[in-house]
Amino acid sequence: MNKWMDISQRLENQIPVWPGDTPFSYKVSWSKEDSGSVNVGQMTMSTHTGTHIDAPFHFDNDGKRVNELDINLYIGPALVIHVPNVTSIGVKELAGMDIENVTRLIIRTDAWQERQVFPDSIPPIEPALAAYLAELGVRLLGLDLPSVDPLDSKDLSAHHELNRYGIHILEGLVLDDVAPGDYELAALPLPLVEADGSPVRAVIRKLK
Ligand SMILES: N[C@@H](CC(=O)c1ccccc1NC=O)C(=O)O
Ligand SMILES: [Zn+2]
Ligand SMILES: [Zn+2]
């Protein structure tokens, strides 16, 4: 049986976050010495740090919250495709790829090279790709970038279009060692009530 591979960013205090967002921090707030029995940790983080999913509430006040999302979307067969050296990701960039009957599509762009710093720019998803992917059956779109929109976007049109077509978003994957092909994916959000996003532990296993 093929082994599960971790495709998540490590959550450590130096992890880069969206400019201006809450820094990640973990510390032991109550040590074994102090408590007499246990180490107890405390963490602070943004819901959009590292490998995470967006709930529609992130960009739409009337959108679903994390605890309302269907967990079945985040576990199951997934296709990984490689789309390097592009300035944006649209229908043209995916032309000729066999994406029939794919519920979960993961795009490896390799565009975020310097992982220790938040990128200056990324190849965004073109909003028009949403309708095309929905037609192919895609319900979850994952990628190795911190957003599906340009980093300076305020209208977040790719987020909105994907949501309009029922496509859920998984961001910040680490796909450096993942060859294109068919996999099983598990990237479950936490049961965060009312939340706009959630960190996930994303793992993948080669099918066949
Ligand atoms: N859309 C990005 C996050 C995002 O836009 C963001 C995250 C944290 C703090 C501010 C943000 N956007 C501000 O314009 C994402 O989906 O992760
Ligand atoms: Zn996000
Ligand atoms: Zn997003």
Automatic annotation (TrEMBL):
InterPro entries: KFase/CYL, KFase_sf, Kynurenine_formamidase_bac. Its EC number is 3.5.1.9. The active site is at residue 58. Keywords: Hydrolase, Metal-binding, Tryptophan catabolism, Zinc. It catalyses: N-formyl-L-kynurenine + H2O = L-kynurenine + formate + H(+). GO terms for molecular function: arylformamidase activity. Pathway: Amino-acid degradation; L-tryptophan degradation via kynurenine pathway; L-kynurenine from L-tryptophan: step 2/2. Pfam families: Cyclase. It is an enzyme of class 3 (hydrolase). HAMAP family: KynB (MF_01969). Homodimer. This is Kynurenine formamidase. It comes from Neobacillus rhizosphaerae. The lineage of its organism: Bacteria, Bacillati, Bacillota, Bacilli, Bacillales. The gene is kynB.
